[in-house]
Amino acid sequence: MLNLTRAADDKLFVNGAQSVDIDVMATNGVLYVIDDILVPDEALDVLEIARRSGASAIVKLIEDTGFGENFADDTKSNPVCSKDAAIGNLEKIPTDPTELMQLLSYHVVPSEEHTCRLYNDQQLDTLNNGKQIRFNEYTAISFLRDSIGNGFRLHNVLPLRNQTSEHVME
Questions:
Q1: Distances (CA, A) of 163 to 113, 123, 147
Q2: Which of 25, 35, 48, 82 has its CA 20 to 30 Å from the CA of residue 102?
Q3: Is the Cβ–Cβ distance between 34 and 151 less than 8 Å?
Q4: In sequence order, which residues have a C-beta less than 8 Å from that of residue 75 and are 6 or more positions away?
Q5: What is the pTM (predicted TM-score) of this model?
Q6: Among residues 161, 165, 160, which one has the least CA distance to residue 147?
Q7: Which of these, 169, 128, 133, lies nearest to 150 by C-alpha position?
Q8: DSSP string for residues in 132-170
Q9: pLDDT digit string (tens) for 104-117?
Q10: What is the pLDDT of residue 74?
């Protein structure tokens, strides 16, 4: 999906890339020239997707601790990433490396899971020494179904490369 936006100075942007030449007419269409390369989400790694989805605070913690190796190209782990606002609501982020690793490992399901396959009250193992995360579903409108991970609504659930999924919590 392409997101077209126009800035206050009337500049046009396509997924954040500035359009440097617009409405170039051709015999078979209209050309827009932009100043960057558009990379589809499916070509990005799971941590970059999380960063772009508003979970940059937990991504920074993951990268700072070296925990990112759990998301190597050949793994099929699912991170459940808290949005920046949720991380900001923590009373205290652990400074002890062992405690921080335990917190981060609780946010990773070491298997390929997609929300379309989750069922109500399902518990999935995490990388945190056998602790599980519980998923519940609720219905706000009869034809919409959302998933809840330990009380947090899941957003931006995308199938990514290597069949990995990323879940962003509010």
A1: 9, 20, 19
A2: 48
A3: no
A4: 162, 164
A5: 0.59
A6: 165
A7: 133
A8: EEEEEEE-SSTT--EEEETTEEEEEEEE-GGG-EEEEE-
A9: 888 888 877 777 77
A10: 62
